[in-house]
Specification:
Length: 152
């Protein structure tokens, strides 16, 4: 796992709309990048719905929220459409960013999944906080509160 105080790795990944996104797209804003195991699974759906429901609060606080998983663009598009998500989901099917972030993996029923992990990145691209083994319920409220404290 990367440490707080280090620079977030640069990346170039496509979102659910097949638009290429890089770290530079978030320069000057706080960024919450949350890693989740798999599209259209119960916990991941709760998390996506929660971030969508609180998107306005994040926007007002100057915080961008982005999900990341190893699912592909088409899977992300279907997931976003099914639940009307208004946040971006980045596709990392080659696990380039997931590997660069040193996110752990867990096994469930014989399949490995990336661990639910959240990174808070400041406007200069520095990792300010890392949350591991995140519970999908209520995590967005903790992030809003913690980032406001970090801003001071």
């Amino acid at each position: 796992m990367l440490d707080t105080g280090t620079t977030f790795p640069n990346f170039s990944l496509k979102n659910q709309d097949n638009r290429t996104t890089t770290l530079k797209d978030y320069a000057g804003s706080w960024l919450v990048l949350y890693v989740y195991p798999k599209d259209d699974t119960p916990g991941c759906t709760i998390q996506g719905k929660s971030f969508t429901a609180t998107k306005e609060a994040f926007d007002q606080a100057g915080i961008k929220v982005v999900g990341l998983s190893a699912d592909d663009v088409e899977s992300h598009k279907n997931f976003c459409n099914k639940f009307s998500f208004t946040i971006d989901l980045l596709a990392d099917p080659q696990a380039e960013l997931l590997t660069a972030l040193h996110v752990g993996q867990s096994e469930y029923k014989g399949t490995k999944y990336w661990d639910r992990t959240t990174f808070v990145v400041d406007p200069n691209g520095i990792i300010r906080k890392i949350y591991q083994n995140v519970s999908p319920e209520g995590h967005e409220k903790v992030l809003l509160s913690d980032i406001e404290a970090l801003k001071k």
